[in-house]
Hints:
There is one protein chain. By secondary structure, this protein is of the alpha/beta class. It has three domains: 46-331, TIM Barrel (Alpha-Beta Barrel); 352-456, no CATH class; 471-579, Alpha-isopropylmalate synthase LeuA, regulatory domain (Double Stranded RNA Binding Domain). The chain contains 18 helices and 14 strands. An eight-stranded parallel barrel has the order 1-2-3-4-5-6-7-8, surrounded by seven helices. The chain has a three-stranded antiparallel β-sheet with strand order 9-10-11. It has a three-stranded antiparallel β-sheet with strand order 12-13-14.
Amino acid sequence: MKTTGSNNQQRTSGMPFSKYRPFLDTNPVELPNRQWPNRRIEKAPRWLSTDLRDGNQALIEPMDPARKRAMFDLLVKMGYKEIEIGFPAASQTDWDFVRALVDDDAVPEDVTVSVLTQARTDLIHRTVDALEGFPRATVHLYNATAPVFRNVVFRNDREATKQLAVAGTQDVMDYMEKKMGDDVVVGYQYSPEIFVDTELDFALEVCEAVMNVWQPAPDREIILNLPSTVERSTPNVYADQIEWMSTNLPRREHVVLSAHNHNDRGTGVASSELAMLAGADRIEGCLFGQGERTGNVDLVTLGLNLYTQGIDPQIDFSNIDEVRSVVEYCTRMEVPARAPYAGDLVYTSFSGSHQDAIKKGFEARKKKIEETGDNTWDLPYLPIDPADLGRSYEAVVRVNSQSGKGGVAYLLSTTRNLDLPRRLQIELSSIVKNHTDKTGGEVTADELWHIFADEYLPASEVNGLKPWGHYALKGTNIATGEDSRSDLTATFSVAGKDQEIHASGNGPIDAFVNAIEQLGHRIHILDYQEHALAEGGDATAAAYVEAEIDDTIMWGVGIDPSTLTASFKAIISALNRTRR
């Protein structure tokens, strides 16, 4: 036998990787005493949904007014208290939507709307004009501060870039004071756009200059948003940048530090979570991660990640399918089947070993609750209880060619209330696997029931199945003799002809076995189990019999309102299966 050893030969992809520079070569962060790795998240941040602004502008077909309103109403219903509703100076469509919310009195008193503007006087004035009539509102101003934008896009030096932010802030203050009455609660948010690529000392300098204009105080907070407009570093580097800013900002107690993460590297969620550890007070994002390029950070994933750690996200995710349905309607984009928490398949196991573990986990959980009252969630392969999100357990286990006995047994248990003995589970899973190997697809719960019924139950009990079975039980009568033995009269259909047999035994089942032997078979019962059925029409009991019949070991199943008759039917089932 040969084993593989190490291969230290230098390899190359042949791709021009040398044209790219490591992020830290151009954006170093000096933070030798970083604290965020030793912290833990203990509460939810403030949330800002930007679905109606950042998310909407990234859609192939932006939302029409009806879809925008449906999205806004969903966000309010879920509990989001800060919602960025648009860029009213950018288009008449955005302006009309913002004004419609005022005209319809659609914004609850505890919800703060936010609108975005660039640092231009005409745009600032039109943006503030759009807010007339709102009881609470935030103006969000931004300008690009990163070197590549200063040097290539705008051809501004550092001082001109800073003065643009300062002048824009002053414009916002002056015009809000002119337009807004004392009964309106107004807030201000500033974003040094492309923060992650901006030199930290310069980002701090610009933010300080903006704060000097706004003059944050105990009743006058300022929101400083530090966006990874294009995600270009690992999450730990972004966390270092956030902590550096949080540590060095003056008047930090009056600053709401906000993180706005995109997902270009696929680590937007991780970056946001590490940002919270590093000092971020607020997270901006979109439901299911809609947004430019690879999207904004996913607020659903972030919120439910907190939930699985025993932290109240302060957002209602209890009907996740409704949330997904509304978002798909509004955005005309589907949520992937594997999207965390909300995808069609995220609570589904096809693997046999996974299914067996989940089945045992549910059984152990039920026992633990009954014995101790401990409701703590701790199940294999399920980080969250699907029921908490309005999902049923029926979708947790689905059967295909990769499935084993656990999945088959789980589906029959949850859809038909059948609690199969372990050895019967093994036998049935082999039968189902033969079916899936031939068809190559998934077996639904209904299809599984038909496979099971065709194999174990008389055709008369399941519609649509071809009749089978050499024997059928037509009726029985049991009497108890003076010696406490059971006297049985049973009528069988044998190859379509009725035959009445009289037998006795130490009990009804023993008597029935003796009757079967009069039909010319040797039979010995190896295992017998039965249980009541919680539902299933007239069927109230299920019986399972493992029997050795004419040197063949076979399982049989019977279902009947009478537990005793179910047992008799199970024996007939096993007998028929030896002849099939």
